[in-house]
Amino acid sequence: MQHQVDADQEGNPIYINLELVGGSLLIKDHDMNLIKKTIGNPSKPSRPSNELFVDIDEAYAWFQTTSLSNRLDLVRQQEQNESGE
Amino acid sequence: MAIFKNFDVEVKGNRVTGGETNTGVVANPSDGDIWIDGQPYDSDTLYPLFDKSCKAFKNFITKSELAGNHYVGGGQLIAKGPCLLNGQTTGVATLGGQFDKYKLGSRDHNLEDDQVINCSSPMFKFTSTGSKNFYLKSYTMSGGNYYAAHQPYTFIQGDDFSNPEAVLWGNYDMNTYTYGAHAFPLYVDTTNKYIYFFNTYSKSNSGSYYYRSIVGGISRSSYTTLESDGAMSISAHTVILEPNSNGTYGNYHDFVPNSFYYCGKNNDNTLMFLEYVIDDGGLQNQDSTDLRIAAILNAESYNVSNGSVSSVATLTTSNLTDSTKAVKYMVNAHPSNFKQSPISGETNVYYSYRPIADTNKEISFMLTTWDKSANSNAGSVTIDNCTMTYSSGVVTDYLTFPSVGYNVNGRLTRSNCFITKTGTSYYLHYLPAYGSPDVVAAQSAPSKNLVTYSIDATDFSNLTYHSSVQVNAQDFVHLNSGRTKIAVISPSFLKVYTWNNGWVETASESGNFTGVTQDASGRIIGVSTLADIADATASTVDANFKFLNHKVHLISDSLPNNVTIEFASSSLTYTGSNISTSVNVNAYNSSNARVAKSVTLKIDGANATFSNNTTSIATTTSTSADTSVAVTVTGPGPITISAALTL
After folding, report:
1. What is the DSSP string of B228-283?
2. How far is B456 from chain A (nearest CA, A)?
């Protein structure tokens, strides 16, 4: 699964790539370099083991609660608008 | 107890200079000798020494300056022991100065139970794999109107500051973001040679958004040393853990919306970090209408070998049994140290607390449980409410929310807590600190209390009110690894409190203190100056120059309380021949713990001598065992041995 987080100077989208492996989520950058992985579903921690993501939809819903999902190009635009720059 | 030295620093504009090193008091790690205003003094006797320069700081004009009405920088007092600097005197900070007063970030952001002393100083120490000691002294400077200043640092190889093996002076910088604020070292990976920091930094690069966008993160810097690389260096900081719940900018300007903490290692050797969250913007205002966001705690681990990050837990208030207990911002709340569980079957489980506030700003505590072995040794983190029990009254009788208003007072305020263990009993202590006398004065009495709760050792979520004492803290520092003795800088006083089934004030010295430390022999040394720096005396020759007087105090609680001398043999019979025997010498502090002190022994009479064939000898007591001093009995009759302490 791909999720757009930015745009380059030509306006082309920059994606984050999401892969569900064994109930954990691998979060990779546009070039498929690993940024972060989860230990199961981090929003459902438990001992001795966290619950697992049941599917990519649940994992994507969790991903959207994190700052990694922010659209940086839109934030930059908002900053410029508010500061009058 | 006593003011034993004083010195002046020269003030011109906002620059502060003094002596050949521009430092106030420096303690030498190798021998305990101290420099006062650049002049060396013997550790034990405080007698002046000849030609012993503090070279570690001599070639670097240690950064110190006035910011508003505050003396900042960090050169006033430099020591590896517990060392607290509290630069503010009167007045509140201005924007830009608000970060400059905070020096114990390493303590507050490292939750390892056994690192409290090493982290309780703006000078961080680590030992290389080759057993060489290194010291990283960080300074905090005043910033501009919209940005924090870069931090200078001194990186020293070797224990002897009069003859350091190598010294590097520089400024912390970031290569991920241009607008780094302050950094506090938390952990050093001496194998891969990285220093890990808690950083505050801006996620924006546009004008007045610098402060609005400040957040917390974890960064690391590679380093080299003369010992193993031929030269000293510290690279620019690279952010490795970013805010998980924050956008890119927010509002002005009281406190950071998220903070990271280092816990220690999971059983798979990854480093475990916690991120406590209060808001999804940048720096936040403190006012009565603001509510915290649902996200409350994220746990992430870091693999030092391959740099991979794992998200272990992302927790919200809905993970609490009662989410209504965490509704308001808790002002700059720091979690307690992690304490290992004594409960059977919980060998790998550690507990920590953090204050939270409900909609009425009534304070309770959240319990964080870290299991180092869960998730196949990758670790797990869970949270829950604590059950708060008061045998009489309600929480607000003992503990009330700080009054900080809609200004930078909130930035100076910190909600601290820590756990102690006495025998098999565990206690949680809550101690707010307010930064400056003005902010202390703005608080009600219960909001200045040091409040203690007994912890149920079979269920750490059960807290029962134990006791409280009004402390009035601008800031405080732990004086022992058990956290049972603290020094507190209060308005017009430096005080020492000792835990003995209740906190008791065991020393009090008047003065406007800007620093306090404890040397290797247990002496507590304080530095005081004027309450209002504007009152510094102008030079009669050139009124552009002022002289700011400082006093160096020895605090009475730190002096040895008792010295004992006992013969090793309980019975000696002189039969005409010399008897070789010995006496055991010990010095104890006020807590009845052994301390290392220089003691001069004297024999009154002519029927015994020491090993030097005289009736006087100097020895140094031990912190761990009897110190045996040989004695030869040369004749019959009573033998009187007296002890004199050199301070």
Report:
1. HHSS-EEPPBEEEE--SS--S----SSB-SEEEEEEEE-TTSPEEEEEEES-SSSS
2. 21
